[in-house]
Design brief:
Elements (H helix, E strand, L loop, with lengths): L7 E6 L3 H15 L3 E3 L6 H6 L2 E5 L14 E4 L5 H6 L6 E3 L4 H19 L2 H9 L15 E5 L3 H12 L3 E6 L9 E4 H10 L3 E4 L13 H5 L5 E5 L8 H9 L3 E6 L19 E3 L9 H18 L13
Parallel strand pairs: 1-2, 1-3, 3-4, 4-5, 6-7, 6-9, 7-8, 9-10, 10-11, 11-12
Helix pairs in contact: 1-10, 4-6
This protein binds NADP nicotinamide-adenine-dinucleotide phosphate (NAP).
């Protein structure tokens, strides 16, 4: 229906203008003769005609103008805010599924697991005190790393860690079978996994089921001395419970890449906590080149033959 017609596609985001411009240039180069524009550049008729939009963490209310949307393509993998504010959207949502993103996350999982496994936080603290003290190096095979979430990012991260010799397990909604990974599901599976966990990596989507999942009761199931890495969303952790766990030495260290409020305010005590490493949401940034290629393929599939890419199950909201 759209073949040979130039379609105007809104780009709805809160990205800073230079970043927005970079995306618009990439997308327009790949989608010509179709046009990707900001909503402010669209006529009322074009807004009404829009069936597909490209979104990057938009103000969900900005979507309400587009009453005839059939689907939206997100530039990010996480779409929790959209489903929280528009629980039953009138359009389908395709989140970014980019193998490059999964590779970047797997690299982060390995980097920060090694950081904990090779006790880098302790050596950094010792340096502050001019303290020359050597700790035993445990073989990777004796370090149990557990991953919450075995989806696109969690499964590849688990594989990368197993390839590096770690003893890896993972937990997901549905039971999985993955080579060299011990897979768990359900409440009992979670408890069994946590009992033996030395490093816990969070790669779950934020949903009503996972919000504050990692609370005091949850943390108590981890053995003394365990560490946590959160790459998913800040609200999955009850931050007070985490800080208590670190302060009372039940937990060794936390690497936090995501926070309830981002950027993390300068006044937050998390910045100064000796047992917390703060990262500015950088574990797996969207790769402009690979992501724009995938997004344009998805959009052309729809414009050329009305094929929709994989979309998020709105009941599960991930
Ligand atoms: P995904 O492919 O949707 O996988 C999600 C995994 O979590 C699946 O294995 C799913 O189980 C499991 N899960 C969901 N709810 C669960 C529950 N209540 N109990 C147990 N398991 C549950 O997501 P993804 O692409 O791997 O991404 C995960 C998250 O990473 C995103 O939602 C986003 O928030 C975050 N992220 C962060 C960054 C960063 O830079 N920090 C970058 C990209 C993404 P099933 O497989 O059984 O469905």
């Amino acid at each position: 229906m759209f073949i040979n017609m130039s379609v105007v596609i809104p780009f709805i985001s809160q990205l800073p203008m230079p970043e927005q411009q970079e995306w618009l240039t990439q997308l327009n180069t790949k989608l010509a003769p179709h046009c990707v524009v900001l909503p402010s550049q669209m006529t009322a008729e074009q807004i009404k005609a829009a069936e597909v939009a490209i979104i990057a963490n938009p103000e969900p209310s900005d979507l309400t103008l587009f009453s005839n949307l059939v689907w939206v393509q997100s530039l990010w993998a996480g779409v929790d805010r959209l489903f929280k504010e528009i629980p039953t959207p009138w359009f389908k949502v395709a989140r970014l599924e980019d193998p490059e993103l999964a590779q970047t996350m797997a690299e982060a999982a390995l980097t920060w697991s090694l950081y904990l496994h090779r006790q880098i936080p302790q050596y950094m603290a010792q340096q502050q005190q001019c303290e020359w003290r050597q700790h035993k190096v445990k073989p990777a095979a004796q370090c149990n790393i557990s991953i919450l979430g075995l989806g696109k990012l969690g499964a590849l991260s688990a594989q990368r860690l197993a390839d590096n010799g770690f003893n890896v397990s993972g937990w997901s909604n549905s039971q999985k079978t993955l080579a060299n990974i011990t897979c768990y599901s359900g409440e009992r599976g979670l408890t069994a996994m946590l009992e033996h966990c030395h490093i816990l990596i969070i790669l779950l989507p934020l949903t009503s089921d996972t919000e504050k999942l990692v609370n005091q009761t949850f943390l108590a199931k981890l053995p003394q001395g365990a560490s946590i890495i959160n790459f998913a969303r800040g609200r999955i952790i009850d931050i007070e419970a985490l800080v208590n766990g670190l302060d009372n030495n039940h937990l060794s260290h936390a690497v936090l890449d995501v926070f309830e409020h981002e950027p993390l305010p300068a006044t937050s005590s998390l910045w100064q906590h000796q047992k917390i490493s703060v990262l500015p949401h950088i574990s797996a940034p969207t790769n402009l080149a690979s992501a724009s290629h995938i997004i344009c393929q998805n959009i052309l599939g729809y414009l050329n033959n009305k094929t929709l890419p994989n979309t998020v199950d709105s009941k599960r909201s991930y």
